[in-house]
Amino acid sequence: MTSGDRPDLDSEASTAFRDRWPEFVFHDSMSHDYIARVEDYFRDFSILVLHEGRVVAGSWGVPFVWDGDPDELPEGYRTALAASVESHESGRAPTAFSFMAAAVARDPWIRTHQRMGAQILKPAPNSMVVSGTVSEWESWAGMSFPASGQYVVPEALNLVAVDRENDVVSYCEENLWVRHR
């Protein structure tokens, strides 16, 4: 079922999604600029999984214009959101579809997609990019960053780079584009 089918579950779906992901993933500035329009325009691509009438899982999906050339795919999650919104607002019909929650980054997910017949198309090197101040990141990660350097943050796929002198913390997450036939 989709969010379009059950708008009465929007609040519950939002809570379920936020409860299952680390806070920092909600602070990619590019995604932030588009997510409200994604939720408005593409309700029928937002899948909800219910158990006994309650939302237990879900995923975001967006359609976008793509010519089939892997080199022309968006850079990743954040640029796929932008491409989908901009295509929709310009009236161009989508030719491709991406499930945002199926961002393939961890090895078990890659293997799962391959077992399902997916073809790896190309890396998405900057799929999610989150920058913030040291205090913002300390709040998001629930840990302190006492010195500049690289840190392991729970649930982050990559190291987080801390530059205390310039009060900047950066995180970049890669993913893969895969195609299911």
**Ends apart, CA distance between termini:** 22 Å
**Structural class of the secondary elements?**
alpha+beta
What is the total number of structural domains? 1
Unreliable parts? 100-104
How big is the Rg? 17 Å
Largest β-sheet summary: 4 strands, antiparallel
Morphology call = globular
Binned strand content: 25-35%
Strand order of the largest sheet: 5-8-7-6
* Helix content bin: 25-40%
What report would you give on this structure?
It is a single chain. By secondary structure, this protein is of the alpha+beta class. It has one domain (7-179). Helices cover 30% and strands 29% of the residues. The strands form 3 sheets. Strands 5-8-7-6 form a 4-stranded antiparallel beta sheet. The protein has a two-stranded antiparallel sheet with strand order 1-2. It is globular and about 45 Å long. Residues 100-104 have low confidence and may be disordered.
